[in-house]
Amino acid sequence: MKILVTYKIPFYEEVVESLKESVTLGKINDLDETYGGMLCLLTDKITKEVLDKGKNLKIIANYAVGYDNIDVEECKKRNILVTNTPCDEVNEAVSEFTWSLILALARQLEPAANFAKNVGYRGWEPDIFIGTDLKNKTLGVIGAGRIGSIVATKAAAFGMKVITHSRTSNTKLEEVILSADVVSLHVPLTPETRHMINSKTIFKSGAILINTARGPVVDESGLLELLQNGSLAGAALDVWENEPYPRPELIEMPNVILTPHIASATKSARLAMGKTAVANLVAFSLGQTPPNLI
């Protein structure tokens, strides 16, 4: 089976070694009827028009846990299998990064570091960059799946209480958000979760928001309104509504941290993602059910 790989993923040679001569490294536009498989990124939009080019495509291995970049329903109609890359390494990497953002935002790390680097520091003062304690505060985890659950377990190290909301829980989304000092998002992007956070969302006074899920889960125009009127004390966004273009007003706000979608960017996670994607392709080529079939 001929396989199109749309990006030279991290540790490419090591990852694709088992596929050998089956692989062609190219772009999404190179897809044609000669390919039976494809390894793509979340930035590759797999639409009906793209699928029309790959008339003999049988499997798509998405190098990501989320798969909102793929028209899954259209793939089902065409009997094209879709797989993703959930793995322990990604879960741990994203959960650790989530806590990095929580701590950085609570303790004003970014503005303080910029202040020091720009030679603004003139000596110790008791009233600069006053942060927020986490002990005895409440963490609200929205989406208590693989990653959200790990984020929740780490809260004990900081003496925080935890409340969660998920599709299967009895807790209401609005109640969790209103009760939490820190709200951390870990939901997939679906029609139901798009703009889950918006200008009408009511937060607890002094609360901060963390998003390491998908950008459009947050309506950034609504977020800006909440930040400007003081309904939300701060936000840390590793994912943006219109990547790679952050909302200009958010860039200038000292209580907003923006990072470039790097929550899972560790060596072990990136390698594991590649190996998982390839394992899905190999299993299919051997006539087996891919282990991470969506």
Strand % is 5-15%
Total domains, how many? 2
CATH superfamily of the largest domain: NAD(P)-binding Rossmann-like Domain
> Any idea what the CATH architecture of the largest domain is?
3-Layer(aba) Sandwich
Radius of gyration: 21 Å
Percent in helix: 25-40%
Task: Produce a short descriptive summary.
By secondary structure, the protein is of the alpha/beta class. It has helices spanning 12-16, 48-53, 72-77, 88-106, 109-117, 146-154, 173-179, 220-228, 248-251, 267-285, and strands spanning 3-5, 23-25, 37-41, 59-63, 81-83, 138-142, 161-165, 182-185, 208-211, 234-237, 256-258. Helix 4 crosses helix 6 (146-154) and helix 4 (88-106) runs antiparallel to helix 10.
Summary tags:
294 residues, alpha/beta, Rossmann fold, 2 domains, 6-stranded parallel beta sheet, 11 strands, 32% helix, elongated
Topology:
Layout: E1 3-5, H1 12-16, E2 23-25, E3 37-41, H2 48-53, E4 59-63, H3 72-77, E5 81-83, H4 88-106, H5 109-117, E6 138-142, H6 146-154, E7 161-165, H7 173-179, E8 182-185, E9 208-211, H8 220-228, E10 234-237, H9 248-251, E11 256-258, H10 267-285
Parallel strand pairs: 1-2, 1-3, 3-4, 4-5, 6-7, 6-8, 8-9, 9-10, 10-11
Helix pairs in contact: 4-6, 4-10
Give an account of the 3D structure.
With about 290 residues, the protein is α/β, with parallel strands linked by helices. It has 2 domains: about 5-85 and about 265-285, Rossmann fold, CATH 3.40.50.720; about 90-260, NAD(P)-binding Rossmann-like Domain (Rossmann fold). The chain is about 30% helix and about 15% strand. The strands form 2 sheets. It has a 6-stranded parallel sheet, with helices on both faces. The chain has a 5-stranded parallel sheet with strand order 2-1-3-4-5. Strand 4 (about 60-65), helix 3 (about 70-75) and strand 5 form a beta-alpha-beta unit. Helix 4 runs antiparallel to helix 10. The chain is elongated. The protein starts with a strand and ends in a 9-residue tail after the last helix.
